[in-house]
Request: fold
Amino acid sequence: MKSYWLKPDSGKTALEFRDVPQPEPGPGQILLKMHAASMNRGELIVGHAVKTGGPAKAAGGEGAGEVAKLGEGVSSFKTGDRVMGRCSGAFAEYSLIDAREALAVPKNLSWEEAASIPLVFMVVHDMLIAQGKLKAGEWLLVTGISSGVGVAALQTAKALGAKVIGTSGSQDKLDKLKGMGLDAGIRTRSGDFADAVMKATGGKGANLVVNNVGGSVFPETIRALAYEGRHATIGYVDGVLKAEIDIETLHTKRLTLFGVSNRLRTPEQRAVTVRGFAADVLPFIAAGKIKPLVDRVFPFAELPAAKAYMESNAQVGKIAVRIPG
Reply:
């Protein structure tokens, strides 16, 4: 079967096209005939998906397709069912998925929309609901809000009744997101937004921060938090992995800091997230109250162009890849 692999190359990641044997599902696994997969920025950063000097890795972490074959012990799906989920090697004609992480695709979704849901919306469930405890009427601040995770956080927060502030270096992107419910947009690429957050919130600050950017804005996100605020670190696209912490602010404001990552989680822990997402967020999607924002769809043969488009930072929302057959 045809598939793409990621390998480290001079401090960056490069795609490699391969023809490899079709995988066979083991116990508890499902073999999917893939119809679409989507891009995730973290996968393109050396240290996330591939290690410097390490071997190539099957590319793609989420997608949607038809059930082609069931592994031993899987009874929750049947051949031909439409399924979406987190799966390794999603940029391929076939991919394996743990049955515990598989979700039935709602009827109102296209393949590309379904492929753009699993990773980002489960991450959003983790940081907004499971750990972030976001409530109706609270303020959410999202740095780099035009990213896939950022847009999903905006959509989910609005569905929950929260108010959202977002930062972006592009006024055009902020204007587009205001049409999706963004309450306040701050145009900036620097750590200089805390005063604007305080102004937007009447001097109280954000109840929850989602930091998509990294260490370069971390001190400012701490400044922007309200009393008993919560801070989620989800990424570091700026490459800055360390930052100072204002211990006095952490102490006096009674702040909570937490990270959101799947890298060290067990399959059982990931399955808990899937069940939480299915209960708390998927109903909004199935009812059309949340519609995944797909910025652009690329053909499978043009995955390198899709990668270049993501690296250009031009998109708002997700970039999907349509897989033929």
